[in-house]
Write a structure and sequence with these properties.
It is built from six helices and seven strands, in the order βαααβββαβαββα. It is of the alpha+beta class and 185 residues long. It has one domain: Aminopeptidase (3-Layer(aba) Sandwich), CATH 3.40.630.30.
């Protein structure tokens, strides 16, 4: 990642809800449907449905829905932290909009999320979930130090074919080791 790539997280505001709605009804439908707990993922959602799903998610006690912003003030994606079920084992989600991928924003945002998890919470392990058809997503998670922890067979369908869901996790000690190895590189 170029050292000049910087991102910040911001709270979700009204104008971003409309952008998320536009993306859910477009190229990010499958990814956002999972994040919004919307089934079936092939179905479009109304702006009010998206707003309602985001409000539901925002009511969780130990969770955060974040917007990802570049240093150039562009809204480049969304992130989520969810420790509602177990504060020692939060789950992360990161989605960078397609036109901003492969520019370092995802790596910068993921590192910021991981640093926050392991420095500011009780987390001893962080989890993630990636559908097996997303080879780029799996490679990205593994580049951050995540390890494959399990598979949910036939988790869903896309384009008429079953896909598996891959569970990944990153232990605190693995994160520390991965973080230290980056410093030496």
């Amino acid at each position: 990642m170029p050292p000049s790539v910087r991102v910040t997280f911001r709270a979700l505001e009204g104008s971003q809800v409309e952008e998320i709605w536009r993306r859910q009804n477009g190229e990010c439908r499958h990814d956002l449907s999972g994040a919004l707990d919307h089934d079936p993922p092939w179905a479009p959602m109304s702006l009010e449905q998206v707003r309602s799903k985001l409000e539901e998610r925002g009511k969780k006690e130990r969770a955060a829905l974040l917007t990802v912003w570049s240093s150039e003030e562009s809204f480049v994606g969304v992130g989520a932290y969810d420790a509602d079920w177990d504060p020692a084992c939060p789950h992360l989600l990161l989605l960078i909009w397609p036109e901003y991928r492969r520019r370092g924003y995802g790596t910068a945002a993921a590192r910021l999320l991981l640093e926050s998890c392991f420095r500011e919470t009780l987390a001893h392990v962080v989890g993630a979930y990636v559908p097996d058809f997303s080879r780029e997503g799996l490679a990205f998670a593994e580049s951050l130090g995540f390890q494959r922890a399990g598979v949910e067979r036939r988790a869903g369908m896309k384009d008429g074919r079953f896909f598996d869901g891959v569970f990944l996790d990153l232990l605190r000690r693995e994160y520390e080791g991965h973080r230290e190895s980056r410093k030496g590189a």
